[in-house]
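Input (structure):
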């Protein structure tokens, strides 16, 4: 008999012919797409919110062809896992060590609130002449709100901030050197930290990806955390700036405590109970 017929006859009854290993591998590779485990509803929803930067319940229900109650239920599950943050009918992705939103996505979230925060920063400059401006969209808005009628020196880790302010005759801009992050256009790594530590600044305007009573201020990237920590270290005064949805969220790397800041400026959308909890923990919460 031929080798192939021998294999068929030697196979245990009811099992069919025994294929060589390479043939079984090819058979597995040829499985139809329908045989792959489909994404769960939660996974679909998480992918959607991460892709768009924020989602509305009604819009998500239409996109996924499910009821709004189904979306709410799945969002509650994702929030319990620390993967999304819900606020006023919207959901935002919580940034982790493996996921971070792009600068373009951040521009879409609560622009009016962020504009009010930026205006409040300008009112709180005091006599500051040398200012650190962090990377991110909220710090960029704060940079735009800086006065045009006084001489300032701005040190920044943000390419957009440097570009925005370099056209102003009253502002001397110093951008720290290092690796540029593609998503946020922020500058990080050892060279940036070393350069920052040579300065002594009047004021630091600092953002974060999450702020909690238990963990303080956090961010997904250790390199970013190092730059923020160095800026806090060399600034005589520090102000945190961030919209209300950053509160109650913990990201990957802690870089500061609540008591490192003279004020934490956020919007009036921050719930009164949460604001009281931060006050009780020693934070000076300013809502605008």
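Output (sequence):
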């Amino acid at each position: 008999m031929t080798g192939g017929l021998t294999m068929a006859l030697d196979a245990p009854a009811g099992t069919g012919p025994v294929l060589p290993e390479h043939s079984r591998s090819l058979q597995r590779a040829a499985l139809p797409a329908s045989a792959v485990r489909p994404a769960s509803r939660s996974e679909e929803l998480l992918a959607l919110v991460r892709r768009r930067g924020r989602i509305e319940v009604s819009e998500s229900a239409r996109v996924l062809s499910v009821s709004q109650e189904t979306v709410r239920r799945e969002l509650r599950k994702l929030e319990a896992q620390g993967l999304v943050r819900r606020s006023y009918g919207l959901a935002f992705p919580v940034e982790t060590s493996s996921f971070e939103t792009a600068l373009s996505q951040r521009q879409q979230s609560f622009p009016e609130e962020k504009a009010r925060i930026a205006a409040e920063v300008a009112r709180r400059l005091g006599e500051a002449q040398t200012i650190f401006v962090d990377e991110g969209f909220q710090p960029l808005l704060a940079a735009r709100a800086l006065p045009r009628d006084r001489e300032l020196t701005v040190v920044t880790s943000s390419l957009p901030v440097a570009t925005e302010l370099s056209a102003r005759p009253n502002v001397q801009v110093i951008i720290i050197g290092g690796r540029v992050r593609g998503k946020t256009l922020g500058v990080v790594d050892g060279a940036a930290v070393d350069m920052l530590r040579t300065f002594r600044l009047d004021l630091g305007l600092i953002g974060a990806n999450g702020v909690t009573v238990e963990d303080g201020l956090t961010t997904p990237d250790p390199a970013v955390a190092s730059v923020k920590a160095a800026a806090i270290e060399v600034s005589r005064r520090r102000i945190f700036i961030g919209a209300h949805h950053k509160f109650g969220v913990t990201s990957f790397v802690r870089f500061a405590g609540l008591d490192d800041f003279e004020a934490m400026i956020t919007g009036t959308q921050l719930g009164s109970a949460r604001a009281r909890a931060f006050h009780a923990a020693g934070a000076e919460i300013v809502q605008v």
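Notes: Residues 105 and 193 are 27 Å apart (CA to CA). The chain has a mean pLDDT of 87.
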